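Customer escalation, tier 2.

The customer says the design service returned an amino acid string that "doesn't look like it belongs to this structure." They asked us to rerun it and document both sides in this ticket. The original structure tokens are below, unchanged.
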């Protein structure tokens, strides 16, 4: 890693030492084509035309690498890595634990997961391994070690790709087998020490479920215990740590033989089951797989903002550039409706990732398979086996663009003065709470607060409750139901020293074991907020209400907190129902800073207005000096020069007036009016 200082903030710039450039490539599966020797050469010919400079290899190749127990066949892999490197194509090399061979599951059935219903899975599928199984760990580490010894120091291998989409394919990263049950009990013993402490933390006297022996503890089950929320939380934490430990051992094995080559795991969008903030500490580089629902609605706003949020999250995990490990050049094959990207959308979506901090655009997949589940998933090289395809031409156009901008973009990063709290353990807790609405949509609530910043072109980091708040001007923490230890005190210090903190209804309700705070908000933050909560109302759409803010009325959704102020000032009021005239938005001066409380789930127009006022009041600089047209946003990457990515998510041409003269990355001068084509992205250099 290289460290560069920008003003008050230390920024890490990710460097893959063997190839410090933007990557363009994707998941390549030549193990499916070993009987067709001409295919590799055709693939290389087409990859070079498409400006591909990197592929991911061996992700699901265990059965080809080890066709029988202890019989290893790595020669084919080495030949392909060599051949690719000869042509200037680098390799991200995978450990193949994502899918187990049949000989392994046949001889050692204990390597397969057991479901919450206590039924062991059958062979097949992906992500079907028990992370606790000693046999699974032994077998994959033996293969990992051989791959690392053979290829870990190859000049063309630039990164380790550990397993694949951990916890995916509906497994939730959970195994309920006897080995995992016993490991869970040992984990609980280490955490709580005594059954009395555990029973109190879980409030197990409820329904007479007090534990009198460690052996009585079982993981949550649909035909057993599901109502002890502390148990549910701890089970999620345990499963997260078991998967982390499995991953850590794979990383340790390959690094032992590859001169500490950096490693990554490919993460997924809004994946609730694994806490990516904790996984970030295991890997050197963050990467993720992005498959937005482009063209699923009348406008691209929802897809664009959700994808931007995930890019910002991935960047924020290490405060460093990340890798877009998978995307599709055209379509997916596993959604209810698999819509082709409209002309221009592939380049726009890819550059959106780069704009938010990605140093790569990579695909699943390079070549389409001929059979099985993913044979109709989009690819760079289609079944037609030709370059004469629209998707191939668009991939080639993007590849040329990435080559053109690589030297400028690579040594830059996004810098944020605003952070939004998105905490995995809070996510688990808030959606298991059984009230006031079931289920609560935590991710959707966070997105309501993120979208206004995206619309304004304000760079935003995504953090959890364990992250440092001090480097930000504004921190927004929507629906912070579970107040993790230390967070309230950190908020207090942040506001005291001049920070601006925004939180909402259904916040500060419980501690880390899901026990309710007595007396409402925890004491450390009640005076910071300057209010006390009375009750929360949950209402269907038939009982309408509005809040008055800034001279306008805004409709209110289902959740409506009823509070009274102590020292806070009221900025908005409810306009109907028994709480008419009571506070709906408050602000409290505390120390050198301010704390805002939003009592209700309001329409988007309210959040647009509220955050526009807040950004202006706190002098937070947007990435564009003027108000942006609807569907257009601007992202900024900073280094020796600043790069502005102006992105048009409209299927129509948009014009923007320029207050000054800019240069494009192609060296052209732009002034007066900037015209953006449908689904266009223009990159300007800010002097």
């Amino acid at each position: 890693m290289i460290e560069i200082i920008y003003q008050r903030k230390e920024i890490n710039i990710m460097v893959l030492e063997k190839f410090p450039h933007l990557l363009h490539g994707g998941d390549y599966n030549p193990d499916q084509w070993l009987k067709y020797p001409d295919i590799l050469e055709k693939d290389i010919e087409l990859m070079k035309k498409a400006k591909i400079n990197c592929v991911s290899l061996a992700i699901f190749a265990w059965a080809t690498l080890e066709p029988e127990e202890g019989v290893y066949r790595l020669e084919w892999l080495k030949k392909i890595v060599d051949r690719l490197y000869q042509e200037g194509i680098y390799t991200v090399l995978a450990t193949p634990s994502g899918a187990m061979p049949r000989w392994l599951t046949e001889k050692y059935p204990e390597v397969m997961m057991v479901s919450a219903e206590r039924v062991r899975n059958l062979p097949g599928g992906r992500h079907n391994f028990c992370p606790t199984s000693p046999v699974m760990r032994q077998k994959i580490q033996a293969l990992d070690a051989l791959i690392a010894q053979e290829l870990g120091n190859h000049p063309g291998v630039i990164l380790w790709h550990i397993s694949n989409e951990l916890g995916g394919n509906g497994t939730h990263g959970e195994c309920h087998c006897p080995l995992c049950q016993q490991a869970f009990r040992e984990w609980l013993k280490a955490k709580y020490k005594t059954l009395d402490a555990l029973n109190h933390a879980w409030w197990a006297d409820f329904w007479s479920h007090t534990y009198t022996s460690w052996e009585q503890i079982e993981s949550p089950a649909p035909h057993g215990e599901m109502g002890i929320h502390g148990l549910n939380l701890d089970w999620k934490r345990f499963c997260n740590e078991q998967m982390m430990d499995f991953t850590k051992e794979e990383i340790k094995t390959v690094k032992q033989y590859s001169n500490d080559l950096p490693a990554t795991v490919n993460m997924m969008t809004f994946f609730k089951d694994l806490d990516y903030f904790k996984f970030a500490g295991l890997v050197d580089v963050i990467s993720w797989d992005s498959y937005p629902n482009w063209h699923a609605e009348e406008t691209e706003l929802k897809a664009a903002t959700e994808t931007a949020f995930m890019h910002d999250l991935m960047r924020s995990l290490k405060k460093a550039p990340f890798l877009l490990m998978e995307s599709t050049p055209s379509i997916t094959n596993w959604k209810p409706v698999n819509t082709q990207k409209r002309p221009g959308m592939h380049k726009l979506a890819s550059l959106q990732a780069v704009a938010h901090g990605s140093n790569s655009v990579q695909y699943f997949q390079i070549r389409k398979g001929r059979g099985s589940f993913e044979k109709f998933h989009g690819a760079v090289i289609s079944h037609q086996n030709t370059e004469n395809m629209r998707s191939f031409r668009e991939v080639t156009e993007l590849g040329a663009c990435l080559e053109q901008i690589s030297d400028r973009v690579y040594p830059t990063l996004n810098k944020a003065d605003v952070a939004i709290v998105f905490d995995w353990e809070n996510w688990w807790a808030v959606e298991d709470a059984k009230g006031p609405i079931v289920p609560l949509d935590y991710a959707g609530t966070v997105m309501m607060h993120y979208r206004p910043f995206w619309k304004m072109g304000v760079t935003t980091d995504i953090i959890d409750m364990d992250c440092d708040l001090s480097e930000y001007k504004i921190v927004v923490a929507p629906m912070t139901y579970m107040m993790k230890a230390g967070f309230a005190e950190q908020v207090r210090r942040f506001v005291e020293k001049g920070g601006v903190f925004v939180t909402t209804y259904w916040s500060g309700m419980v501690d880390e074991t899901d026990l309710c705070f007595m007396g409402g908000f925890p004491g450390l933050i009640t005076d910071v907020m300057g209010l006390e909560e009375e009750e929360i109302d949950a209402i269907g759409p038939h009982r309408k209400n509005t809040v008055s803010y800034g001279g306008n009325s805004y409709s209110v959704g289902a959740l409506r907190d009823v509070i009274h102020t102590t020292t806070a000032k009221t900025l908005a009021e409810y306009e109907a129902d028994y709480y008419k005239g009571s506070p709906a938005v408050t602000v409290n001066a505390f120390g050198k800073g301010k704390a805002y409380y939003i009592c209700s789930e309001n329409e988007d127009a309210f959040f647009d207005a509220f955050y526009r006022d807040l950004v202006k009041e706190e002098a937070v600089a947007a990435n564009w000096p003027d108000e942006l047209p609807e569907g257009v946003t601007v992202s900024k990457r900073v280094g020796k020069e600043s790069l502005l990515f102006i992105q048009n998510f409209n299927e129509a041409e948009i014009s923007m007036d320029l207050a000054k003269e800019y240069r494009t990355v192609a060296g052209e001068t732009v002034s007066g009016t900037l015209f953006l084509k449908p689904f266009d992205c223009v990159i300007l250099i800010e002097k």
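Tier 2 assessment: The sequence is consistent with the input. The first strand starts at residue 2 and ends at 6. The chain is about 30% helix and 20% strand. Sent an explanation to the customer and offered a walkthrough call.
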